[in-house]
């Protein structure tokens, strides 16, 4: 039988606020264990939570960016379970009345655009960290992460393959970065997800039994774990077996998902409204303000680059990958004044090749050694035919190294296009005179050899001769002059 | 008749130079040294700390401070579920034995800033769960009127400390009656304010949607003085109300004028049986109000009969969650020999006493899958109906008057075997808790000793006044007038009560 | 509504991480059932369309500015712990994830 997979994601995003969700402890990553801990986030008896205003602002931004319905009276709830990294014995989350419901994330995958509907977005606190390498068969508990703000984005089961799920995660990263609410860094755990997956015969509407793969913390793991799990379930069903509803973990070293059933006790979270936090009321004005500060999302920007700036799909996709890179590109275009499509494309390509090869992370475009204004000056020289495109690259490299302007470098190093046409004519004549054999070949019909002459002329002028003029002169001389 | 005001008198004596700062403390210290240990009033006593603080204040010019600091040199006792760095906070539990809190409760901070001298942390039912103070891991607290009897709970130590003159005032906490019921049993005045009036930051949680700290004192005006200091908004408690308190100290001495035309609601039908001594005490107070010009209205609280069940389902549900943090990992008791995580939890949590375990079990059950809607959620809905009952009452009257407790203080051990019988002791106090309303208990009579009925000593009778939310000032004005009119002699014959 | 008053006390104890001896399980189980029986009258209350009360005095959740305040001294935090190492709380080893 042929099956289709049905995948839903529960995505956790750490919000990039300065302090934790319910206390003033720092959220800085990488501190020594238990440095950023206070009575509130260590669950000391009698300590009480106070909500961080910025957390609400950030979450609202995400909710609005995804077109969710924002609830005007959402509630916090306690999710009760015991674990050493959960200091209070419950996680403050939202349950019955989450901050936002509905909405969707638009994903572009293999050239196709689709939307993954959202069930909800809610606020919650992160747990601490337990490491299992303590001396003498112990585990160690670090509470620095306990209380770091999270939004949990729960999708509807709209995905049907592993690669699309991974792409959805990439899209979420792009959105949260564009919104400036998280760095979306999967390595540091600021973006992670649980994946629910089940199979059903193609054409069937009801869902099969699902498993939940916990804590996937890289795009690659999302894809591989789902690929494995889908294959595992298919083999089970094909063999006449049944999928057991359970929680599984992905083991990357072995490339398999493993059942956590053995250690999992029947979970009964006993949710109830958090009595220490009143109703989270969102006023109309607050919503309007959040809406007003929404930036353009990556996919919309990409479409605009294609429609308005005439970039290709690939060019646009690459430039919107990080907000900072797109901003850089737009700043260059703006500084160029009314650039035509060819010049815009030149700018795009320059950034994709010359800039990106010089920075580790596209986000570093924001602090690149050559500012957008400076790059625009260089491209303006190309536009005015004062510098060749080829030499522009050389000049850019020097700008990168010594931070001088394109104009200064070109002047100091004598890299402007040769404006004296008599000199170019002389050079063309010299090259033709030196290559009688090639001239004969050309005249016998092998006109492709003109490239050879161009190369010789350019070499002799150190690239400064205007290529159009060289071409034109060569053709005239080779055609007319017997 | 002069308005009773012990704390005010102590402040005046200090300001006029009639007394020196420390005199009041000396008097209390004497009582503490003589009887506190026998009666089991405190879990930790800190007379040295109180004296040191007194010396500090004296250095800063005592007479001037008496005008500036509203509780200058006033000895107070603090219930042992409020954090006060320097002393352990045990909550009456082995689980927190020796726990040194790393921060100070807002209410304790305010008390100390007002010049109060904290003499110690008072005994209580473990994690405030109980109505008799028999559930303390540090031994029971006894009623100073008759040491064979309970002082009420869970703030039994705070009420006993005030009754036995070991402090001029005390802080307690009230979840379902834990200030009012011991106040009634010990013959003192106790206020449970509107939920949110006094910060819970630093009050170790029992049931968060019900817990409310409050003051106890021997007279209404002294009680108001304490409330004026510890009450008011606190940013560290997200459920803290921002509304101003009003001049509650002045309200306490408003006099008879406050009663004229006052609409007083009395229950036409009691949800539980009431002892005759209690009933007659309350009737006496009702009559006194009528004589001062109050209009009496018979009212009903149709859902009051369900208040106990509602209360116990909600408070235990919240408690089961609040007490999950006691797992032996970050602080408190930890079982020595636990070699896996489950064992660590279960063996460490064995340090809870039986009543705490009982309530955690009930609350866990009430929230668990399959039972949540029928128990916890249903109770929360009935809670709404109880709130509406009160709203309706308060459209017809200004205050409600009812007993604080159905009985006189009972004997130790009398109800320990039967949780249901014990829970009945809260029948009159839980409705206001569920609705978050301010309620005050004050003495309205003293039942004389009656050896033929097994009463070796006189015992106090409490009455309860309930007002709409935020109307603490109204409670104080009515209670002040009533106190003057009833003139109940609540001075215990300390010598006689001594060695029973 | 609550036809079945029998409570699986050990299952509840497991959820609450409490260990009960057989005797305790019998005693607590019986007491719990008695309490629930005494509370059974609640079943008869008509709560249709009634909103639950989650906070007795309704007010909107206050919010604070996103400003760092000092954390606890780590020594103070860890010293209160019954078991610690250099920088962390110590628990018996947790088997995977
Ligand atoms: Mg979650
Ligand atoms: Zn903190």
Report on the structure:
- The complex is a heterotrimer of chains A (482), B (500) and C (97).
- Chain A is built from 15 helices and 18 strands.
- Chain A has 482 residues and is an alpha+beta fold.
- In chain A, the strands form 4 sheets. In chain A, strands 1, 3, 7, 8, 9, 12, 13, 14, 15 and 16 form a 10-stranded mixed sheet that branches. Chain A has a 3-stranded antiparallel sheet with strand order 6-5-17, with no helix packed on it. Chain A has a two-stranded antiparallel ribbon with strand order 4-18.
- The termini of chain A are far apart.
- Chain B has an 11-stranded mixed sheet with strand order 1-3-2-4-6-5-10-11-9-7-8, with helices on both faces.
- Chain C is built from 3 helices and 2 strands, in the order H-H-E-H-E.
- With 97 residues, chain C is mainly alpha-helical.
- Strand 2 (51-52) of chain A pairs parallel with strand 1 of chain C.
- Residues 93, 124, 152 of chain A line the site of magnesium ion (MG).
Give a brief description.
The complex is a heterotrimer of chains A (482), B (500) and C (97). Chain B is built from 18 helices and eleven strands.
Number of strands of chain B: 11
What is the number of independent domains of chain B? Answer: 2
Can you summarize the main beta sheet of chain B? 11 strands, mixed
- How large, in whole angstroms, is the Cα Rg of chain C? 23 Å
Largest sheet of chain C: none
What is the chains' assembly state?
heterotrimer
How many DSSP-defined strands of chain C? 2
Share in β-strands of chain B: 5-15%
Chain pair with largest interface: B-C, 70 and 49 residues
Decide which structural class fits the backbone of chain B. Answer: alpha/beta
* CATH architectural type of the largest domain in chain B: Alpha-Beta Complex
Give the helix proportion of chain C (percent range): 25-40%
Strand order of the largest sheet of chain B: 1-3-2-4-6-5-10-11-9-7-8
How confident overall, as mean pLDDT of chain B?
Answer: 95
Order of helices and strands of chain B: HHEHHEHEHEHEEHHEHEHHHHEHHEEHH
Radius of gyration of chain B: 21 Å
Bound molecules: magnesium ion, zinc ion
> What is the CATH fold-level name of the largest domain in chain B?
Amidase signature (AS) enzymes
User: Secondary-structure element sequence of chain C?
Assistant: HHEHE
